[in-house]
Amino acid sequence: MLKIKLSPPNLVNRKYIVFIDAETKQAFTNKRKANEFITKVEGELNEALLFVNEAYCNLTAFYRNYFLADRDYRFKYEVENCFDLINNRLNYISFHSSSENYNTMISQAINTCFDSLIAACELINEKSQHRYDMLTRRRIELHKKIIVQYKESFDDFKTQSIYTDKLKLISA
Question: What residues contact residue 164 under an 8 Å CB cut-off, 6+ apart?
């Protein structure tokens, strides 16, 4: 199974700095705490990667139900572009899992996957409305809600982990 392995912390001015994405970074006074933080973030990123893969598989099944029955090439092109972008980002994650300064790219790749999953849900939902397919419409809306909630919790994790670690530094 593919596991995300983040870069080790950078030593700058006697502080260990861990970058999660372009806006989110954390500084630690010792290397052990920085490595614990990296382990916690790696676990969350690995869960997000598994979630994206599972949602991608589910949405592909919904799309394939419409693929042969519909001649709307604009719909097919737009959905396949979303899927190609997700597949591209998942391949990027798998091939660059051990390169330097990788932390910010992995977070951006996962956020791009979330955005593409939401866009694909909206496209399939729109097509199901045009075809009066209420069952697929409700199932897609449910999947979209789950994806949006997971994306929000993923973003909250990044901000909460930084906030709680700063509180620990202040209280210590």
Answer: none
